[in-house]
Design brief:
The protein has 186 residues and is α/β, with parallel strands linked by helices. The protein has a domain of 125 residues: 2-Layer Sandwich (Double Stranded RNA Binding Domain), CATH 3.30.160.670. It is built from four helices and six strands. It has a six-stranded mixed β-sheet. A hairpin with a 4-residue loop joins strand 5 and strand 6. Helix 2 runs parallel beside helix 4. It is elongated and about 60 Å long. It comes from Sphingobacterium zhuxiongii. This is DUF4136 domain-containing protein. InterPro entries: DUF4136.
């Protein structure tokens, strides 16, 4: 019986570990009929001033090939000559920090004999800040621009924490797929 529960707990942990840690946001021109766009093309990527892991050939290839696959799955055809809509992307990697908290492990009643802010007998007390942790956070932004009006008609962003540049580059196809789930045409 204990081994069955162990297997279930490990399975649940693996399921949650495999979930995407990227967040997706989108905005669009609300009353626009996106089915009018039949052909697409690419503009050069927008340069970013931030520290960027995605300015190499492998990243560019992962982004463009994954995006082409997603765009063509929505019924658009690539055209170098007068496409209806133009796509471009920008990648941004920022340094961020967050406060790290620790539990107070006092014991001896509500006043806590070990720490004055602790509660309970062996822990579970109030948490308090102990420092800051630095991390990197990446954004991949894709925009669709109406070629005739030269106006952005759709923009979507995939954002997430980067633990390793290599993993971030290898995850680009999944991020692009998540971004295009937000595209108005299925």
């Amino acid at each position: 019986m204990k081994s069955l529960w162990s297997i279930i707990i490990v399975g649940i942990a693996l399921f949650f570990a495999s979930c995407s840690s990227y967040k997706y946001n989108t905005t669009r021109v609300q009353n626009l009929d996106f089915s009018q766009y039949k052909t697409y093309g690419w503009l050069p990527p927008v340069d970013s001033l931030s520290k960027n892991y995605f300015t190499n050939d492998i990243s560019r290839s992962n982004i463009i090939s994954s995006a082409n696959k997603e765009i063509e799955a929505r019924g658009l055809s690539y055209s170098k000559e007068n496409p209806d809509v133009l796509f471009r992307y920008v990648t941004i990697v920022n340094n961020k920090s967050r406060v790290v908290y620790s539990q107070s492990y006092g014991w001896g009643g509500p006043w806590g004999m070990y720490r004055p802010w602790g509660w309970g007998w062996y822990g579970g007390g109030a948490s308090y800040p102990v420092g800051k942790e630095r991390f990197r956070y990446a954004h991949v932004i894709i925009e669709a621009i109406d070629r005739r009006s030269n106006a952005v008609v759709w923009q979507a962003r995939g954002s997430g924490e980067i633990k390793s540049p290599e993993k971030a580059i290898n995850n680009l196809p999944k991020v692009i797929q998540g971004i295009f789930k937000e595209y108005p045409m299925k």
